[in-house]
Design goal:
Elements: E1 2-6, E2 9-13, H1 15-23, H2 28-39, H3 42-58, H4 68-93, H5 110-128, H6 132-143, H7 148-155, H8 159-178
Antiparallel strand pairs: 1-2
Helix pairs in contact: 2-3, 2-4, 3-4, 4-7, 6-8, 7-8
Amino acid sequence: MRVLELQGVRVATSDKLGRFEQTVLPHMDAAYSLARWLTRNEHDAEDVVQEAILRAYRFFDGFQGTEPRQWLLKIVRNTFYTWYSKNKNQAQMEHLGDEAMEVPGNEMALEEVLVRDHGKKALMSAIETLPLEFREVLLLREFEGYSYKEIADVIEAPIGTVMSRLSRARQSLKNRLSGQKLGDFF
């Protein structure tokens, strides 16, 4: 047993909790990022990650792998699909809210700010419209830097399926973004 202090309260913890904190919790940002892209909503992503962390802790004794990040992301993905099957209608109707706009410094001209922000929003919007199976492989490859093999392990699919989905996701993004011109922004 060890003692952990949380907001001024001393709590006795087990060795399991200590190992879990050291092994799994460093990957919370990646877990939230995946959940955020899958749910398209920060509140739903928080719910999915919270449930995934509880599941991960519950089954931590069975974790024998050397890749805790992959293991956690697999749990997040499976938790998302469980959540999605229960909330399908609501999830399809909700859209990602506008992110808080960064206040640019005086060094940038208004036109540059508009182009940069619109380009970012267009990319985010295009990614959000991808089918779920394309969005998840794109996120894992491009944002998380996973190899095809690692993605295949997380989504429990053959490497060929990963490669195909990734190719189709990239092509779809290219098609969605290529029709937009700079003149369309103003």
